Amino acid sequence: xxxxxxxxxxxxxxxxxxxxxxxxxxxxxxxxxxxxxxxxxxxxxxxxxxxxxxxxxxxxxxxxxxxxxxxxxxxxxxxxxxxxxxxxxxxxxxxxxxxxxxxxxxxxxxxxxxxxxxxxxxxxxxxxxxxxxxxxxxxxxxxxxxxxxxxxxxxxxxxxxxxxxxxxxxxxxxxxxxxxxx
Length: 182
Description:
By secondary structure, the protein is an alpha/beta fold. It has helices at residues 2-5, 14-17, 37-40, 43-57, 72-83, 138-149, and strands at 21-24, 32-35, 64-68, 87-92, 100-107, 110-117, 126-134, 153-162, 176-181.
């Protein structure tokens, strides 16, 4: 998948794109897993990805950056620090103590549940959701639901990688920004 889309990527970002690793049939047969961890092992690449995300979000009046477990935590926290706003995690079921909102959603390989603490997003807060990959849109749609349950307003969905047909059903309501489309 990655090698076939390389020619479609922006020249300035090719060094980052070339860091991505692809693992067929992981975590189960039929899934093409794209690994972003090599980006985090390269400080220049990490800084560049953070710069792109910050530049995209800086004029959107974002109050909160939400990172989706687990790979979304990395860049969400970097971006939040750079923008001087809070980072809030969305986690899998059972990982957060206290009262939480929950959403059950469908992943490529079965159902899952995401949670966010109740009360961490003030009503009317403008929220950007950040994760590593937009595949089917199920995880991001569940994150949007959690923000709405918290009475927040989703102003952006931000990803490193977006599948070309990932939002064909318009499952996500907020705008999508991604560095790479594969």
